[in-house]
Each structure stands twice: as structure tokens, then as C-alpha cells.
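Tutorial, part two.
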Amino acid sequence: MKSREEGFFYGHPQNRFWKVTSAVFGEDTPLSIPEKKAFLLRNHIALWDVIGSCDIEGSADSSIRNVVANDLNVILENADIKQIYVNGQTAYKYYCKYTEKKIGRSAICLPSTSPANAAWSVERLTKAWSCIKEGML
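Running the prediction step on this input gives:
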């Protein structure tokens, strides 16, 4: 819900995506939307939702219904995407169900940066997510 209110990816203040990815690249955590966009461009990261639209209650993944997947071909035909990563098991489940066969590319599932994934500390997430930088080499 917070991300939708902010109008940009991972807008909930307790989601650790920006903290983790900035740590992977050795940068300060971007705070504003322009800073986040600059960070993504500087580090050659494209973000896109697996789900284009759905019915959801609040931010509860378990309530997701009536999924319409985004067509990732729009990005893949226009950018040199080396690897696709998904943020957590729910994104991975929907990627495998709706997207993988359509585009013919598998994804690597990374542990969720959501605050609901409290078992993973920022340090542990950063270590797991470091593969995004290594995948660019």
C-alpha cells in the first residue's frame, strides 16, 4: 500500500530493498524518488513488477486474486538485461506461473526484503543479494 501511495517501487519505509541494494553497491541509501532512479540507472538495474494488476487486500500477498501479469518482453526487447531476479517467493511463484514460459527466461529468487521476512537481517540479505552485482561482471 505504501509503495502505491509513494508512486514508486519499495516505498514502504520498513522494506529493506533500498538499504540492501545500496549496501551491495557500496552507496548511501537513496531516499527520494529522484535519488532512487539515479541509483538504479547508475548501477544498471531495471525494476518491473511481475504483476501488472490484481485484487489485493492491503499488502497481504496471501490475498492476491485475479492476477494480470506484466509483459516483460517490453523491457527485454529494448534493454540488454543480463539476468532476472525476483524479490521473494511470492514474486517467484507468479513469475514462474505467468512469465517464465512466455519469455523463455528463468529468474533467480532472492530472499524478500519485506519487513514480513524478519528472519533475515539486513546484513544477511545484503550477502544474499550481492549476486546481483556479481552477475553484472
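The chain is about 40% helix and 10% strand. In part three we will examine how such features are distributed along the chain.
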